[in-house]
Amino acid sequence: MKLHIGIDDTDSPNGMCTTYLGAMLYREISRVAEPLDLPKLIRLNPNVPYKTRGNGAVAMSFEVEEDDVPKIKELVLKMVESLADFNHENTNPGVVFLKGEVPKRLEDFTYRAIWEHVTIKEAEEVARETNAEIYKFKLGRGIIGALAAIGHPLRNFTYELLAYRKREFWGTERRVNKESVFEADKLTYPFTYDNVDPFKGSVLITPHGKDPVLVGIRGIDKNKVLWAFENIIIEEPVEFFQIYKTNQNTDEHLRFRKIDELKPLESAIVKGRVSRSYWEKGRHVFFELSDDTGTIRVAAFEPTKGFRRYVRMLIEGDEIIAAGGIKEFNGVLTLNLEKFYPIKLAEKITYEKPKCPKCGGTMKSKGDYLKCKKCGHKMPKILIPKKLPREIEKKIYEVPPDARKHLSRPLVLPLGEEKILEAFEKS
Ligand code: ATP
């Protein structure tokens, strides 16, 4: 029989990582049961407030002997109990077991957990209806992610290879040779991606926290991901590694919405007209976007760095498609920009003073009229409109890799532009 196992919310900023626990479980359970596929790393709604980092949950499926089920369950629960970071108030682990085929009802729940905010009670209801067995530790909020990870069909997916550190190294600086990462990137990009930030000259595969992850290598080709890992020089011992199949970089959090449908904690793609061009507060850049149903504030926050330059190039009247998460920022509903596509550019006009019709001299504004600086000739103030070139192009712009949400699809990947273009067709 098939046995599906889901886990979530075992980690905190102080340590641990649900993928680490998942990888250990996958290895241990594979000794007694046949894995049906690689384990799944499922990213859920990136806007929920409870997340530690990227709102990821883990699930795995096995062909098992009925008699082995109790001991597998015991192993999972024991491992979660011994490894989860129970000291942190925001760590509320959840474990779910499901036997047989994954019902459609659970798949529907998964997409709700990617698009919306769901409650623990709703997760409990779905578990009851689908005969999933849930185990809650503390608040047990992790059952939301655990159920959603089991329910994800992964029709579109990417890979991430995660290598973990020996416990004695947790919390210390990660020792990965920078040049070797650039070299491996050069040979495997774009089949592996987000290894480096070429503009900053920095390495992106190493996280910075106290968690056990040493490196994470993402890609669309499993073999190239593995090759990159094998060719990167790691100057500390690796405890073990695991390749996950994941919904990262699939854009599946984005749905086409009208502005009056936008809700906090959701993500969306909207088409609208720039109704107020940019202003800045601190290092954040804002503008307003309107459609026939309303107006929303759009933000490119400081961490999006060079991306803000393109946002400043937008002017009133530009028609754009904008994608991002919806949050309240300083009490105002705000779309936190991930990508945008200017589809119709307004004309940028400046008004210039004419030359003096008598002597060709320079005119000076004097209230309602113009006066020549050279010969003193006066005339009504009629300015000449002049079209300025637009610097921005009709193409999709995206935030840099280190500011990108796990679910957001980089433009370099096949179908990276699909969601935005789909929104264009629908509008
Ligand atoms: P990591 O990426 O390191 O695994 P994390 O960012 O995944 O950490 P968690 O510790 O898993 O953070 O916390 C996220 C919590 O939010 C989990 O309890 C999960 O069940 C819950 N959750 C996930 N999606 C939703 C949702 N759509 N609505 C409400 N709660 C959710």
Automatic annotation (TrEMBL):
It is found in: Cytoplasm. The keyword tRNA processing applies. SUPFAM superfamilies: Nucleic acid-binding proteins (SSF50249). Residues 5-137 form the TiaS-like TCKD domain. Residues 270-343 form the OB domain. Residues 140-253 form the TiaS FLD domain. One of its GO terms (molecular function) is nucleic acid binding. The keyword Iron does not apply. It comes from the Archaea. It catalyses: cytidine(34) in tRNA(Ile2) + agmatine + ATP + H2O = 2-agmatinylcytidine(34) in tRNA(Ile2) + AMP + 2 phosphate + 2 H(+). One of its GO terms (biological process) is tRNA wobble cytosine modification. CDD domains: RPA2_OBF_like (cd04482). Residues 354-392 form the TiaS C-terminal zinc ribbon domain. Pfam families: TiaS_FLD (PF08489), TiaS_TCKD (PF22641), tRNA_anti-codon (PF01336), Zn_ribbon_TiaS (PF23783). Belongs to the TiaS family. NCBIfam families: tRNAmod_TiaS. ATP-dependent agmatine transferase that catalyzes the formation of 2-agmatinylcytidine (agm2C) at the wobble position (C34) of tRNA(Ile2), converting the codon specificity from AUG to AUA. This is tRNA(Ile2) 2-agmatinylcytidine synthetase TiaS. The lineage of its organism: Archaea, Methanobacteriati, Methanobacteriota, Thermococci, Thermococcales.
